[in-house]
Design a protein that fits this description.
Strand 8 and strand 9 form a beta hairpin. The chain starts with 11 loop residues before the first helix and ends in a 22-residue tail after the last strand. 28% of the residues lie in helices and 24% in strands. The strands form 2 sheets. Strands 1, 2, 3, 4 and 6 form a 5-stranded antiparallel beta sheet that branches. The radius of gyration is 25 Å and the shape is elongated. It has a domain of 129 residues: 3-Layer(bab) Sandwich (minor pseudopilin epsh fold), CATH 3.55.40. The protein is α+β, with helices and mostly antiparallel strands.
């Protein structure tokens, strides 16, 4: 009587076919997953920017002094919003970090694939939390290697210091400022 042996497991060709199917499926899923990761990173950036703007307003109210948020080099504000952002109490409203003024927090330099913009040179809040003359629109645009359209968003700051999200009224996929102009995306 022949003894029948039972084999458990897979043969090499079966294993190779399964690995080929898994590899092909993963290859098809990679571009949408990369786009998802890039969009998620952009949302994290926008959330961090909203947080620092709100924090500047809250700090102005709490400390009862003018708080300014701006891109800064050598203790002076300038208009390159891709540079590191610094929040400080600007008691004399000269847009310069003086020796007697204190910094609170900031935001790092923008990623090379990001364009940050603002319609003014500073975001500033008085002790009541009003932005007054420094109202405007903060623009954010992230260029993607995996998508043809950039991810963009705008934050509109009112005279009362409130922040709201901008819209895309012309439905071209690019967020707009309060003046209904597209956020700069390097087009």
């Amino acid at each position: 009587m022949e003894h029948l042996r039972r084999h458990c497991g897979f043969t090499l060709p079966e294993l190779l076919v399964v690995l080929l199917i898994i590899g092909g499926t993963a290859g098809l899923a990679a571009p949408p997953f990369n786009a998802y990761l890039e969009k998620n990173r952009a949302r994290q950036d926008i959330t961090a920017i909203k947080r620092i703007i709100r924090s500047a307003r809250e700090q102005a109210i709490y400390s009862q002094t003018r708080i300014t948020l701006c891109p800064m080099t050598a203790n002076s504000c300038h208009r390159d919003w891709n540079a590191p952002l610094v929040m400080f109490n600007d008691e004399n409203n000269n847009r310069i970090l003086d020796d007697n003024e204190m910094t609170y927090s900031g935001s790092p330099e923008a990623d090379p694939s990001v364009i940050r913009s603002y319609t003014g040179s500073v975001i500033s809040f008085n002790p009541q939390g009003y932005s007054g003359a420094s109202t405007g629109s903060f623009g954010y645009c992230r260029r993607s290697q995996s998508q043809s359209m950039p991810f963009s968003e705008s934050l509109i700051i009112s005279r009362l210091g409130r922040i709201r999200k901008g819209s895309d009224s012309n439905n071209d996929g690019v967020a707009e400022t309060a003046g209904r102009k597209n956020v700069p995306c390097g087009n």
